[in-house]
């Protein structure tokens, strides 16, 4: 049956997470009529995330009450192209969201800026060590096409929207104690002060300082005082309740897209949001040069065509790529010929670390936690150390966090403890309030062998082929993780009151990436930003090379993943893109860069 | 003929291992199912319930704090398997089904309720020996030990599911039928769902001994009183 066609709108926005609502706010205020299509339900912090009901570990942390439903859409996965990809039948390694606010309601709130070297990664290494340093067939390192100085005003604005708390380490070029001395120069301090620190992360900071490093509080979207953002949203101080990641915050104490943006635009005459609306595809004009709008299933499952002058793709990164593939936007990546760009440069996050158990003098009270509560050092992140002798690129922050003590997930035990039984039970009881850790939150380079395409066998609830993910840790990242893990262990050894240390490394030699245990919801790439249409899907303004009225947002833009959590960088990019849409594109729609 | 159904009586039969499945509970109403004792199982058969009590009490045996079955873990599992989780909520179940690599995760052709039912049927007396509940404590430990090391894809999925459900049941909020009297939370010192720690978080190494309180607002006792109430001091 032919789709029902609605009246044309100026802008259609796919997804109501952080970037989708930021786009709606900025474009609606600029006079554009915006229609936001959200596949999930309406919800609100005050009514949907209120305690104590929200503080339900089983429902939200372990049965994924706020996450996407894999019965509607999932992906298939394999480690390499010799394997048959099989469906991700249950969520595990990463947890994309669904519903108003998207995954932005159940993030931890760790909010970083990219380093200048992150954004010019290829140039950085070539200038420092020569072209041959990146001559690795297993790796495709690229510049983003946007420099730190260009992005800085937009990173700064996002930090004000989300009320980030932290200590500036580099204020207009002046290095300041207590902050990250490696960060790029910031034009203004964080809008809020840093979080208080519990004993476990304090012991980490003391150990790191003893080794000569410069620890600083992790920049946090968990509010540290009452705060009003530039849109007029009111946020409240964090209670350190220990229910951040996987939960919404009913206290208005964790910045999220609903309270920070949606509430401030929902009543605007140019703003409309339609829930339970699944976008099936982006439709193209007959000459293929532009998009004409999107086709979606409305809440009654009827097919609807929404024409629009501009299409903004603001779904979770993986699903942006999926929509491009099923819509025929751009050229799919072909790993044999290594041509095409959609699905290319998928990357993840490389995690390793050292868990510690403290002696009996330490009482950590792990349930007093917050998603971004912790301390970190940045000496081992991309470009901050001399890689000449080490033979790999990238890096990560090394930190210690105290996010929660919810007892289903928080069961620290000494290394040789059995998985069950009397000894296990005794150990869980003994060490529940005596654990800490040192984490390497490492970068992930893109590899020609890691990519996203469409699965030949499995389909979603709407009959579309599932996205197929082919991924394993590249050798570069395995070397990086082994080295970073050793640095993490040295810090653990320098910490006071440590009884035992247990090393771990998700990218250990001989161990393939597994989609089962939770690692991070930091899936990046697949529709990357750049200045060369042969190696990027969008130009440096986030505009598709092949369809100039399609703008793409989110971590799918990252050419490779950095050693930080992605929300800060992707929101900086979003405001950068929106700035150029408003000041340049709207008055004269065209490609903003020559291909 | 009218018979009085008793979950406690059914599980008491597993006492061969020296384990009493009956916990002297304080009658606190933590949820709509607060008193499950006189109600038939929602999903399990009596034999399945006994099997689960035997296995989960190997996972979480009695010491100063209750065993799994004493803390309501079998009641918890029964409710889970009868509900959306057991029927496959959050599980993509389209075929074809293939074995796959361990890195590809759960590929069993069963929703959790079917996995547990078939797993019990397949493993109990699989070696032609005694039923699990008829074995002594050592025999039960050996049974669970061998299940935990099984290289059979189905059996290892079954084992992982059992261990996960036992853990959930011991530590999830009591509204789900397990963690009876906050046994799991009292054991580790987790204060529960009510949480304002702004003035405590940087007060280092100070014990925080507020008794637990779950979603249903029912206050717990605190570990010391919990042990006294249950006659478990020392």
TrEMBL record, chain A:
The species this protein was found in: Roseitalea porphyridii
GO terms assigned for molecular function: oxidoreductase activity, acting on CH-OH group of donors
SUPFAM superfamilies attached to this UniProt entry: FAD-linked reductases, C-terminal domain (SSF54373), FAD/NAD(P)-binding domain (SSF51905)
Residue ranges of every copy of the FAD dependent oxidoreductase domain listed in the record: 10-51
Keyword annotations: FAD, Flavoprotein, Oxidoreductase
The keyword Oxidoreductase appears for this protein: yes
Family: Belongs to the GMC oxidoreductase family.
Origin: domain of life: Bacteria
Name of the protein in its database record: GMC family oxidoreductase
Signal peptide, first to last residue: none
Residue ranges of domain Glucose-methanol-choline oxidoreductase C-terminal in the record: 449-574
TrEMBL record, chain B:
Entry-linked InterPro entries: Gluconate_2DH_su3, TAT_signal
Pfam families to which the protein is assigned, alphabetical: Gluconate_2-dh3
PROSITE patterns: TAT
Protein known as: Gluconate 2-dehydrogenase subunit 3 family protein
């Amino acid at each position: 049956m032919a789709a029902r066609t609605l009246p044309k709108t100026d802008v259609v926005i796919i997804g109501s997470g952080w970037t989708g609502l930021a786009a709606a706010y900025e474009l609606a205020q600029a006079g554009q009529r915006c229609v936001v299509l959200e596949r999930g339900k309406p919800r609100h912090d005050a009514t949907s995330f209120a305690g104590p009901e929200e503080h339900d570990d089983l429902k939200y942390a372990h049965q994924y009450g706020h996450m996407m439903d894999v019965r509607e859409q999932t992906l298939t996965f394999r480690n390499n192209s010799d394997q048959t990809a099989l469906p991700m039948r249950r969520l595990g390694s990463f947890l994309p969201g669904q519903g108003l606010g998207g995954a932005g309601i159940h993030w931890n709130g760790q909010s970083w800026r990219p380093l200048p070297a992150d954004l010019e990664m290829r140039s950085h290494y070539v200038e420092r060590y020569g072209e041959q340093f990146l001559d690795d067939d297993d790796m495709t390192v690229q510049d983003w096409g946007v420099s730190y100085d260009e992005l800085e005003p937009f990173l700064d604005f996002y930090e004000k929207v989300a009320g980030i708390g932290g200590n500036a380490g580099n204020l207009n070029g002046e290095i300041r104690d207590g902050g990250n001395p490696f960060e790029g120069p910031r034009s203004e301090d964080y809008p809020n002060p840093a979080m208080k620190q519990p004993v476990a992360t304090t012991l980490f900071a003391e150990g790191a300082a003893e080794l000569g490093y410069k620890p600083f509080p992790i920049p946090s979207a968990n509010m540290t005082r009452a705060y009003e953002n530039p849109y007029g949203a009111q946020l409240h101080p964090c209670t350190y309740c220990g229910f951040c990641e996987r939960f919404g915050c009913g206290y208005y104490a964790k910045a999220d897209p609903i309270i920070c943006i949606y509430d401030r635009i929902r009543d605007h005459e140019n703003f409309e949001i339609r829930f339970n609306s699944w976008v099936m595809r982006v439709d193209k004009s007959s000459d293929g040069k532009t998009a004409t709008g999107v086709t979606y299933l409305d809440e009654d499952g009827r097919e609807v065509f929404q024409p629009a002058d501009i299409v903004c793709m603001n779904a979770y990164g993986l699903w942006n790529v999926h929509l491009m593939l099923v819509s025929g936007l751009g050229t799919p990546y072909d790993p044999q010929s290594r041509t095409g760009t959609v699905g290319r440069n998928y990357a993840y996050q490389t995690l390793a670390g050292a868990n510690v158990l403290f002696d009996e003098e330490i009482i950590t009270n792990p349930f007093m936690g917050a998603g971004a509560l912790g301390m970190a050092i940045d000496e081992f992140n991309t470009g901050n150390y001399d890689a000449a002798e080490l033979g790999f690129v990238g890096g990560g922050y090394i930190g210690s966090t105290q996010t929660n003590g919810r007892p289903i997930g928080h069961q620290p035990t000494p290394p040789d403890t059995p998985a069950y039984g009397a000894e296990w039970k005794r150990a869980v009881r003994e060490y529940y309030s005596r654990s800490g850790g040192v984490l390497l939150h490492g970068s992930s380079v893109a590899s020609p062998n890691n990519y996203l395409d469409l699965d030949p066998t499995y389909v979603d609830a709407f009959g579309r082929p599932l996205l197929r993910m082919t991924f394993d840790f590249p050798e570069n990242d395995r070397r990086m993780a082994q080295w970073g893990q050793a640095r993490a262990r040295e810090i653990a050894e320098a910490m006071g009151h440590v009884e035992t240390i247990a090393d771990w490394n998700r990218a250990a030699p001989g161990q393939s990436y597994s989609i089962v245990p939770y690692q991070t919801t930091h899936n990046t790439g697949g529709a990357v930003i750049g200045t060369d249409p042969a190696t990027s899907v969008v130009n440096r303004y986030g505009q598709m090379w092949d369809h100039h009225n399609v703008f793409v947002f989110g971590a799918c833009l990252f050419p490779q993943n950095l050693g930080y959590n992605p929300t800060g960088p992707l929101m900086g990019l979003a405001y950068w893109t929106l700035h150029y849409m408003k000041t340049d594109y709207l008055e004269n729609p065209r490609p903003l860069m020559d291909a | 003929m009218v018979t009085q159904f008793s979950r406690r009586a059914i599980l008491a039969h597993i006492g061969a291992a020296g384990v009493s499945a009956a916990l002297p509970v304080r009658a606190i109403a933590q949820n709509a199912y607060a008193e499950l004792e006189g109600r038939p199982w929602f999903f399990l058969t009596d034999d399945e319930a006994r099997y689960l009590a035997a296995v989960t009490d190997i996972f979480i045996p009695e010491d100063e704090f209750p065993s799994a079955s004493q803390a309501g873990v079998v009641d918890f599992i029964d409710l889970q398997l009868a509900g959306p989780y057991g029927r496959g909520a959050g599980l993509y179940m389209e075929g074809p089904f293939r074995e796959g690599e361990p890195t590809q995760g759960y590929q069993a052709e069963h929703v959790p309720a079917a996995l547990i039912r078939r797993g019990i049927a397949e493993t109990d007396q699989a070696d032609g020996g005694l039923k699990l509940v008829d074995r002594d404590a050592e025999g039960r430990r050996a049974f669970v030990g061998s299940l935990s090391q099984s290289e059979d894809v189905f059996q290892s999925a079954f084992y992982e599911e059992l261990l996960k459900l036992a853990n959930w049941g011991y530590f999830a909020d009591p509204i789900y039928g397990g963690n009876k009297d906050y046994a799991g939370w009292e054991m580790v010192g987790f204060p529960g769902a009510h949480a304002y720690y702004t003035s405590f978080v940087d007060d280092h190494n100070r014990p925080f001994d507020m008794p637990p309180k779950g979603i249903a607002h029912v206050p717990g006792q605190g570990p010391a009183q919990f042990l006294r109430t249950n006659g478990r001091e020392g």
